[in-house]
Amino acid sequence: MPTLSRMDGFRFFFWSNERNEPAHIHVRRDDDEAKFWLAPVRLAWNDGFNATTVNRLHRLVRENETFFLEKWNEHFTH
């Protein structure tokens, strides 16, 4: 489970066994978690974050989409 970044109290990561899914990023803080598809960025699911926080996370994922995609591709092509 590579952690790619920590921003504003959120941990951005993906699971190493999710190779067969489209590129995505998980975001966790405390017991709350969301998953965002990349390219294009869109919410896959949310478990616990309120709408304001989901919007904030969507913005953070969009702003870091290139970085997340690069890390996804590096991890799953080696």
Strand portion: 25-35%
* Domains (count): 1
Which radius of gyration do the C-alpha atoms yield? Answer: 12 Å
Largest sheet: 5 strands, antiparallel
Bulk shape: globular
End-to-end distance: 15 Å
Features:
single chain, 5 strands, globular, alpha+beta, 32% helix, 2 helices, 78 residues, 35% strand
Structure description:
It is a single chain. This protein has helices at 51-63, 65-76; strands spanning 3-7, 10-13, 24-29, 32-37, 42-47. It has 78 residues and is α+β, with helices and mostly antiparallel strands. The chain has one domain (3-76). It has a 5-stranded antiparallel beta sheet. It is globular. 14% of the residues are buried. The mean pLDDT is 95.
Q: What's the helix and strand layout?
A:
Elements: E1 3-7, E2 10-13, E3 24-29, E4 32-37, E5 42-47, H1 51-63, H2 65-76
Antiparallel strand pairs: 1-2, 2-3, 3-4, 4-5
Short synopsis of the structure:
The protein is α+β, with helices and mostly antiparallel strands and 78 residues long.
